[in-house]
Model the fold of this input.
Amino acid sequence: MKLTKILVLVLSLCLMLVTFAHAGKDLDAVRNKGFIQTGVNGAVFGFGMPDAKGVWEGLDVDTARAVAAAIFGDASKVKFTPLSAQQRFTALQSGEIDILTRNATRTLSRETQLGLNFVTVNYYDGQGFLVSKELGVKSAKELDGATVCVLPGTTTEQNAADFFRTHKMAWKPVVIESTAELAKTFFAGRCDVLTSDASQLAGARAISADPKGYVILPEIISKEPLAPAVRHGDDQFRDIVDFSVLAMINAEELGITSKNVDEMLNSKNPVIQRFLGVSPGNGKALGLDEKWAYNIIKQVGNYGEVFERNVGINTTLGIERGLNALWTNGGLMYSPPFK
Amino acid sequence: MKPEDHSTATDTGEAAVPFWHDAGKRSIVYQVFALIAVIAISYYLFSNTQANLARQSIATGFGFMGNEASFEIGESLIRYSAADSYARALLVGALNTLKVAFIGIILTTILGCIVGVARLSTNWLISKLAGAFIEVMQNIPILLQLFFWYAIFYESFPSPRQALNPITGVFICNRGLIFAIPEPHRAHAAMGLAFVAVLIGGWFLNRWGYKRQELTGQFLPAGKITLALAVFIPLLVWAVYGAPTAMNIPELRGFNFQGGLTVSPEFSALLIGLVLYTSAFVAEIVRAGIQSINRGQIEAAKAIALRPGQVLHLVILPQALRVIIPPLTSQMLNLTKNSSLAVAIGYADFVAVANTTINQTGQAIEGVALIMVVYLFFSLSTSIFMNWYNKRMALVER
Done:
């Protein structure tokens, strides 16, 4: 009898904990914990991977830091959980993590069937081709007859097949289940081409033996808008994550960087004054400190800085802004007004 | 258990035994309950799955099989393109599995027999070498062996542009072994037919020679005659058709070799890995089979001046085979099933194709069911054939 009672007690406690995690008060939960638990990739260089000293680095990692800066005024109040492609959505649904910033493509079915909300895209990606410079290939349309190492995934194989069919080219796929094994096979020369999301190709190239010997071809054959995600049930939290990403984009648009943000506080421009909380309003609307955007820019940087620091042209990844440039520069990064 | 016998006994008995004291009837009741339980559980699982799938609005059924597959497959025995249906893609995968299993079983049997016999050799070096081979191959997991062989292919062979060219028309590079094949010609089909005809003729010749030997004692070297004819007659047919010598020679065009026949590194690595691994087990089975034969028989055979080859052929093997065949069957099944490890090294076997199909259609239950059915079919067919062969061999024994 005693045992049963204890069991019932423990069970109901567990249930309470579970319901607590699911209560929809994600923001409260995060504030009570004092940090944000973030799901990241853990193996993609430039997006989410610890460096040699164990410090997490990457575009996705910095996005999570921006959210921490907005909520706590301290970008370091974030903890990371490396997740595989299969685990990532379950981890978010079950409350193991608070936000997911793990190069996840926003799609209709994920948005509707998985009980989660994607926010603003923090990286526009697409499937591309990586080839050795030795081949002298300048365009994916010259790949007739090539052997292609394909990362198995939901649509990678199909995208590649569609591309080669559309351009009436012959090819041979080599499909290997393990990403690491496939990359090894490609860099050893088994295939002429490696195909996957362009950012992952850049990551694979960066950690290969000879990053300079490989080039990503200009053709991008699919749309992969990668966005952070939160679970359903706490719209305020969703807004905060959304506008944390947008604040970085907006700052770049306004020319505010981590270096000049303190000077910008004295700006006479009302748009900048509103953005940095000099004229209050935005912070209160989001339920945050008025300095939230200032904190993001001061501690993490604007989108351009984050991009160039992690994946930009001067890093080993060497990715050009392309679609990820501001809309004023021909890219897709565009922020609604902060008012 | 014979319930009838028991009930007749109770009929003649004085008092009828209640059915719960009747072991026969009781067992029938148990079996009925067990059957009902199995059916109920299956029904529950089936309807539960159906309901859940319907709730998540996931399509069920095999309707997708006719849809366009729209993915490419690396190697295929039949014509295939991304525009073909899923059904055809899966057939390509099944044929690829069959190809590696069929060739693998033949090579494994041959290599396993050689190593098994070598293991028992009186030559110290040969026997120890065979022993070392068996220990090493048996004790390294097959997956690691596959990675090893695959790495050897892609790491140590040159790129197509620096391909090794040991003899004219043969190239070795990290894209595989590429060699020239004769241009398609009517003569080849005729040569194939002639070859088969000679083999069938040889079988009858062998039977006739055997009967003649029993009657007259004269020995007819039927094997050697058949072998000679099998070489000579197809050549004759080839000459009759005007001796076509056109060859389809591979040449480097663009990225890869075009023309000729390519044996891919994935296939080679899988085949070598499976054959070496399984043949170590087969060798031990062969050794056990041979050792199961009484030494007296071997000594007797030697005493009547049979040569070592004849001792093996006429005395040892016919008796050892009946010990060897049942475990050999299970090794063959193992080889077929292990071939599904192909996904790790990129050979397009049935599992690889089915995985892609599942990924694209989202119909995991159907896909996994297909995988199970196909492997069950392969395994049962192998085992039916081997059981038939086993029965035949068993009859030889008196």
